[in-house]
Design brief:
The chain is built from two helices and three strands, in the order E-E-H-E-H. The protein is an alpha+beta fold and 103 residues long. The chain has a three-stranded mixed sheet with strand order 1-2-3, covered by helices on one side. The longest helix has 16 residues. The protein is elongated, with a radius of gyration of 20 Å. The relative contact order is 0.18. About 17% of the residues have low confidence.
Length: 103
């Protein structure tokens, strides 16, 4: 079991950086701080002029089962939803079924 979320390897012959998620025992689930560190590594790999390709891989049977669930917010405090969830919700029509669609 490793406490490191991912490893980084640079192949100078192919000008490629490979980031490998290494927490296979937890399905490569990520915490908030893990996501931040991974984002910095991806940004740094993209800004390196020697690097032409960045590959994101994972050990184990699952690429990534998602983030660890957030703890429940105390009552009365607003929890923020991710932007992807908001986009998905706004995609669904709010028009009652059977109502003609305007064109």
């Amino acid at each position: 079991m490793t406490d490191k979320t991912f490893t980084t390897a640079f192949d100078s012959a192919r000008h490629t950086t490979t980031l490998t998620l290494t927490k296979a025992e937890s399905g490569n689930r990520l915490t908030g701080p893990d996501i931040s560190v991974l984002a910095v590594a991806i940004r740094d790999g993209g800004q390196d002029e020697k690097n032409k390709l960045l590959v994101l891989r994972a050990e184990g049977n699952h690429f990534c089962l998602a983030a660890f669930p957030m703890p429940k917010a105390p009552r009365g405090r607003r929890r923020w939803r991710c932007a992807a969830a908001s986009r998905t919700q706004s995609w669904h029509s709010t028009r009652p079924s059977g109502t003609p669609q305007s064109r």
